[in-house]
Amino acid sequence: MYAAALCAGAAAWLMAGGEQGLRRGRLLLAGGGAVASSRDGAADRVRSAARRLRRRAGARREWWCVPAALAVAVLGGSLLPLIAGAVAVPLLGRRLRAAEHARERERRAQGVVSLCGAVVGELRAGLQPGPALASAVRSTGALGGAETAVLAAARFGGDVPGALREAAREPGAEGLAGMAACWRVSVDGGAGLAEGLDRLESALRARRDQREELRAQLAGAWSTVLLLALLPAAGLAMGTALGAEPLRVLLHTPAGLGCLAAGGLLESAGLYWAGRIVRRGEPV
Predict the structure, then answer these.
(1) From CA 25, how far away is CA 129, in angstroms rounded?
(2) What's the main place this protein lives (predicted)?
(3) Where are the extended beta strands (E) located within the chain?
């Protein structure tokens, strides 16, 4: 019990450890630069603090495994759930980071589609290719860290296709390679840049819609996998409600420990197998 309490305190300290940095950020925001009014400054500080808290909470969601494991350890009177929760923290963290990378990739791909449409609009409004690209990049903010290099090339007559190909190396931004090819063809061969980018935007949008449709069709399969993963927990909760004390049997008897080990291995193998089957149908 002392070890469980110590682990719970460590988890709470890790999840709340950024309060000092948050106060320092608030002080810097309060004194850095001129503000229009005290009300506007207070609103900006509140929004900045809320964003930082959301990022910190999202970055440490895997640490909630420790309090959950602590609750099960207290109910079952054993340290095994706490050990399992500590082992689950890095595994869940890796899974959450992979999901965040996938969402960032999707946002970047959507930004490339928006950038193509914005450049086409600026070109048809009468701007030259360089200013049109610079205006579209500033309005959409789709390039992230590569925005500076692309803007410099567009403003000062640099190698725009090279900058776009460099930016296309980011996951999800592969469509920028097509934009670079359209730019190169329009400069060397005199072809219309607006028409090429319009076709590129249509192709990228069609590919995005296809991925979303396929992902929607796979949502039912992922729901089934999640339901199967939660069935053992539902069975334990039902047994506890009926007074059968399944946690005591599983954690304090040789037969229960054997069943727990075998069930854990079968559950892990089943989830891996089902997830691999469903993941094969996901869009690349």
Answers:
(1) 41
(2) membrane
(3) none
Q: Tell me, what amino acid is at 137?
A: V
CA 80 to chain CA centroid, nearest Å: 31
- Alpha-carbon span 155 to 109, nearest angstrom: 24
Read off φ and ψ for residue 212, nearest 5 degrees. -65, -40
pLDDT value at 108 more than 80: yes
Q: Taking the C-alpha atoms of 143, 149, 151 and 156 in order, what is their torsion angle to the nearest 10 degrees?
A: -160
Write down the residue that tokens 């992922």 correspond to: 222
- Type and span of the H or E element at 50: helix 38-59
Structure token pair of residue 17: 């450890």
| Distance (Å, whole) CA 120 – CA 1 | 65
Alpha-carbon span 167 to 227, nearest angstrom: 40
Looking at residue 229, the DSSP 8-state letter turns out to be H
* Residue 48 confidence (pLDDT) above 50: yes
Sole residue written with tokens 């190396």: 169
Q: Which residues of 155-183 are buried (b: 16+ CB within 10 A; e: fewer)?
A: eeeeebbebbbbbbebebbebbbbbbebb
Distances in whole angstroms, Cα of residue 123 to Cα of each of 148, 159, 163: 21, 19, 20
Amino acid code (one letter) for 283: P
In this predicted structure, the answer to whether residue 219 has a pLDDT above a threshold of 50 is: yes
CB count within 10 Å of CB 67 equals 15
